[in-house]
Amino acid sequence: MMRGVTTALLASVLLGATLLGACEERSVNVLEVAEVAVSPGELSVVQGASETLSARPRDAAGRVLSGRTIHWSSDDPSVARVDPEGRVEGLSPGTTRIRAAADQVEGAADVNVLPGPSIQLSAPTVTWEATAGAPDPLAREIQVTNSGNGTLADLQLEVTDPDGTPPDWLQATLQSTTAPATIQLQASAADLGPGDYSATLEVSSPVAVDGDAQVDLLLQVREPPPVIALDPTSWSSSAPEGSLTPSSQTVAVANEGGGVLDELSLRIEYTGGGATGWLNAELESGTAPTRIEMEASSRELDPGQYTARVIVSSPAAGEDAEVHVTFSVQARSQVERP
């Protein structure tokens, strides 16, 4: 009786061991990776930016296998690098291949890194010419564009003179912080003396792959041109007909501008269609300050009113100046009348 029980117990143990072995054999029957599908298969990324790839291990039947570790790598890490999550960062323009491996099986994607945002300015230099003390500002515009790819944003300006400080003769305003943008410049010589004034305009952006760009600025301030000033600017006189004593007037000639007012000359223009030759005018000197001596004679004139202009000019001055002369000749009978 005891022998039969022992035999039955042994049979039960052997059956359990067989069943356990069968279970263990099924648990280690792992499906093998047949391919790793990387998506997208071709990727373009801007230098300085990033894009993400995905990788799916599949078995021979094309079924996605879960729970597999993906190992990412780049054939050329100087062009693009990839992190453990498949995020690809473009580092320099060029092409490379990003690989994804699972259980010794690889998939790959071709990556093209495009040049990143780059600051392009419409002019490398800006030059103004102005007269010292001129009240009106001089305006100019510079266009900022992106010569690369992606978005050129967070633009900033800095203007400095050779001493590294902001110049008080220049204002620069950026109309937008994202390219394309316009920089408005205004230079003023209102408070400046003659000379050359320089500054540097620097345009920067944290995303610009080529760094900052700059414009060299120059304001050339010249001395004001000479200006002919006459005092007085008009002369009225009278004399009896046939008088042997001419009427006289002295006119001061001065320079109310800058530089040297020289090579002065004058001419007389008779107006009103009357007689000529009754007025004489001479410059004391060809360089200001000087004076004009004028004489009007009625000796050869009939009674009436005569007009003329004495015009003073210089090649150094922008405009001529003139004295208006009115000369009245009285009939002798009227002069002698009590």
For the structure shown, list the relevant keywords.
3 domains; rod-shaped; 338 residues; mainly beta; Immunoglobulin-like; four-stranded mixed sheet; 25 strands; 48% strand; 2 helices
Average pLDDT metric: 91
At the fold tier of CATH, the topology name of the largest domain is: Immunoglobulin-like
User: Fraction of residues in helices?
Assistant: under 10%
Order of helices and strands: HEEEEEEEEEEEEEEEEEEEEEEEEEH
**How many H/I helices?**
2
Break the fold down into its secondary structure elements and pairings.
Layout: H1 2-27, E1 35-39, E2 42-46, E3 50-52, E4 54-58, E5 71-74, E6 80-82, E7 87-90, E8 94-102, E9 105-114, E10 119-121, E11 125-131, E12 138-146, E13 156-160, E14 170-174, E15 181-187, E16 195-204, E17 213-222, E18 228-231, E19 234-240, E20 247-255, E21 265-271, E22 279-283, E23 290-296, E24 304-313, E25 321-330, H2 332-336
Parallel strand pairs: 2-9, 11-17, 19-25
Antiparallel strand pairs: 1-4, 3-7, 5-8, 6-7, 8-9, 10-12, 12-15, 13-16, 14-15, 16-17, 18-20, 20-23, 21-24, 22-23, 24-25
